[in-house]
Task: inverse folding
């Protein structure tokens, strides 16, 4: 549960307002989903990898956290290689599988793209503390505090749900219904968890209300969520990388709009 | 909006009543009560007398017209209680559902933020409140790492930081171990002394609060006040009556059935050099030796986090030992080949080892109390005739017959506990494993439970219980396993 246990550190990245990280990740993704070519993704990836060194994660943390991306990228690439749109010279054909020049270059572009979007997103997100994010969303982006704080408080219950799930599983075995089909058991357990979570949620809501939450008084914020030069710098770097990859791809003629 | 401390608040009720939207009967009715500013009141009454309803109403969290109907008048500090936000602060029973934010400092600050207190002032109050409840922790300390007693003190700090004129505590120590109870009680005593705020506490265990409060009010079931006055005279005059209705009073201990037989000497289960883990790979304790005999009660005791529940669940065949083996004897296995309970089928456990979980809600499976009791016997494929005989017998024995068609989740705490024990008894297991069976129970449920278990022991069933409850150990346990 990476979202519940953000990594901690003293580097600058931990002090950057989470909403700026969110904006940067969106900016990069947006530029890279407009086109599907190898050069734009490769350019972004090269520029990003220079920055990962300053991301505040050790090499071990970096690879552990980004494992899903390292698995997803070649998988997506390989699938595209076999089944992607065929064009140009054909190299291999068997049933639906058709490897061509076109599918090879699409495959490379896809794998690089998954890396170029996924890696920075994970690096930026694992250093986000949910509380700071909520502060940012409510104070900087002015989302309604009721929803933001409600979601934040609810997030804390996720850890309890994991314990509940384990206990429910043991309790079913103890009650003599643990031998039933796995799917049926999981469905009934999921329903029980839903009931428990609604009850926990309503208790939490009462506790929040008892502390004046949801009243008419205008709320103040104990922690100030600020946007300063660090945030502007991060978004600026994101914008430069996005622009560079677009410019390079257009200049070398590999750009292809897919919208 | 003023940011100064609220003066101690007066409470006054005039013919006040409240009815939940889903119920026909009034939870509280015809209540006339005056509490002077700064008074410290212990609120007693049988379960169902509407104590919690009154507390929720005083805290202004009882809900609007869609949640229930109000009559009469209830005022806090001269204002209508339902609209007097911020005057009263409420601490509830369950420590887990009161932690709101991830860091200690932020959690205490939450109430102040909602009241619109300026930032500098908030952090001054946070420091002051944490000191008042004796929580000497960094502001960034994660709230998930707190013990039950610390969580309750955190909730109290969160309330204090709002500087309420009235502090309401709804069974704040019912879910805590003895150390946690003392921590919270001492924190409340200190707070009451320094703030001078009016204090109202609900609690089954009178001895915890007796020296702190200066008045006891007993609510009558069905409405109104049954007794009111200084603690000693109320408890002397009404003690026996209160004790019978579930209040713990040292001078009137609940009756306990005497054990007659202390075991047959037949061994049921052995474990040597046992290592236990809740989640695979993270060992909590190692080198535990256990021997369980027929007809005897064994208590697992020790501090929080020592692995008491994990040990019980491991011996109950629900968790796999991290090292060593749990070995059942022929007396327990019967026709089964395997002597290791974790390798038995779920159905095979039913007649051999029955487990009652700490939280009854985890083990409820059916939509009615009657069906809940039938789950085990059905899994054993007993005849319809036999199932209904067993279910009827248990309904009567555990005073659940009037609730046969109720949903288990809608029962009171004591009823849920009785039902969870009954569901296990329905399949007549040789060994009964109970995880904190008496936690948060009033004295009536406690004494019924102890008498029931004593009866089972005399009939030759065996009991393994995880417990913090010294009275329970004294009443029942033949053997003790102490984890540290």
Result:
């Amino acid at each position: 549960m990476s979202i519940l246990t953000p990594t901690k550190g003293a580097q600058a990245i931990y002090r950057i307002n989470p909403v700026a990280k969110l904006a940067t990740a969106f900016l990069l993704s947006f530029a890279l989903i407009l086109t599907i070519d190898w050069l734009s993704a490769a350019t972004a990836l090269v520029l990003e990898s220079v920055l990962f060194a300053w991301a505040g994660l050790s090499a071990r943390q970096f690879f552990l956290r980004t494992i899903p991306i390292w698995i997803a990228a070649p998988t997506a690439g390989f699938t595209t290689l076999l089944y992607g749109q065929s064009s140009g010279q054909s190299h291999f054909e068997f049933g639906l599988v058709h490897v061509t020049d076109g599918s090879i270059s699409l495959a490379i572009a896809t794998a690089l793209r998954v890396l170029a979007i996924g890696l920075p997103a994970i690096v930026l997100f694992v250093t986000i503390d949910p509380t700071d994010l909520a502060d940012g969303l409510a104070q900087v982006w002015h989302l309604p505090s009721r929803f933001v704080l409600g979601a934040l408080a609810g997030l804390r219950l996720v850890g309890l749900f994991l314990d509940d799930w384990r206990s429910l599983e043991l309790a079913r075995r103890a009650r003599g219904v643990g031998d039933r089909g796995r799917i049926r058991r999981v469905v009934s357990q999921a329903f029980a968890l839903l009931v428990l979570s609604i009850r926990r949620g309503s208790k939490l809501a009462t506790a929040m209300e008892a502390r004046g939450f949801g009243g008419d008084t205008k709320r103040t914020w104990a922690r100030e969520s600020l946007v300063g030069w660090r945030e502007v710098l991060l978004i600026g770097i994101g914008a430069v990388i996005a622009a560079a990859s677009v410019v390079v791809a257009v200049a070398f003629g590999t750009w292809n709009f897919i919208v | 909006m003023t940011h100064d401390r609220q003066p101690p608040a007066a409470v006054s009720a005039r013919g006040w009543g409240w009815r939940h939207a889903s119920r026909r009967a009034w939870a509280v009715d015809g209540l006339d009560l005056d509490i002077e500013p700064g008074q410290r009141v212990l609120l007693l009454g049988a379960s169902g007398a509407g104590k919690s309803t009154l507390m929720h109403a005083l805290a202004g969290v009882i809900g609007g017209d869609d949640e229930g109907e109000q009559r009469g008048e209830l005022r806090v500090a001269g204002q209508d209680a339902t609209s007097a936000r911020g005057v009263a602060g409420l601490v509830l029973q369950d420590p887990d559902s009161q932690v709101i934010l991830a860091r200690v400092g932020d959690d205490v600050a939450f109430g102040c933020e909602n009241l619109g207190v300026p930032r500098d002032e908030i952090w001054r109050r946070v420091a002051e409140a944490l000191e008042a409840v004796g929580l000497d922790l960094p502001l960034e300390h994660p709230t998930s790492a707190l013990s039950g007693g610390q969580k309750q003190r955190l909730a109290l700090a969160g309330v204090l930081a709002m500087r309420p004129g009235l502090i309401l505590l709804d069974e704040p120590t019912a879910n805590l171990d003895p150390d946690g109870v003392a921590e919270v009680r001492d924190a409340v005593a200190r707070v009451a002394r320094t703030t001078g705020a009016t204090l109202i506490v609900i609690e089954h265990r009178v001895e915890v609060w007796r020296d702190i409060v200066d008045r006891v009010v007993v609510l009558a079931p069905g409405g109104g006040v049954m007794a009111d006055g200084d603690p000693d005279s109320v408890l002397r005059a009404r003690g026996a009556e209160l004790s019978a209705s579930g209040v713990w009073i040292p001078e009137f201990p609940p009756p306990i059935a005497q054990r007659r037989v202390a075991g047959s000497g037949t061994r049921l289960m052995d474990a040597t050099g046992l290592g236990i883990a809740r989640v695979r790979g993270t060992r909590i304790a190692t080198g535990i030796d256990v021997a369980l005999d027929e007809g005897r009660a064994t208590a697992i005791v020790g501090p929080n986090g020592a692995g008491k529940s994990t040990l019980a669940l491991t011996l109950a065949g629900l968790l796999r030992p991290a090292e060593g083996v749990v070995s059942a004897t022929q007396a327990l296995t019967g026709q089964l080949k395997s002597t290791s309970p974790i390798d038995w089928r779920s159905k095979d456990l039913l007649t051999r080892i029955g487990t009652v979980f700490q939280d009854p809600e985890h083990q409820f499976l059916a939509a009615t109390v009657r069906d809940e009791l039938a789950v085990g016997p059905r899994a054993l494929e007993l005849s319809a005739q036999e199932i209904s005989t067993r279910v009827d017998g248990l309904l009567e024995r555990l005073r659940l017959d009037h609730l046969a068609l109720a949903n288990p989740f809608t029962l009171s705490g004591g009823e849920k506990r009785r039902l969870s024990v009954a569901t296990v008894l329905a399949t007549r297991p040789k060994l009964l494993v109970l995880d904190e069976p008496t936690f948060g129970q009033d004295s009536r449920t406690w004494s019924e439970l102890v008498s029931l278990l004593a009866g089972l022991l005399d009939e030759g069933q065996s009991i393994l219980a995880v417990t913090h409850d010294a009275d329970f150990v004294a009443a029942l346990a033949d053997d003790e396993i102490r984890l540290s």
Notes: The two ends of chain A are 34 Å apart (CA to CA). Chain A has two domains: 12-133+227-251, 141-210.
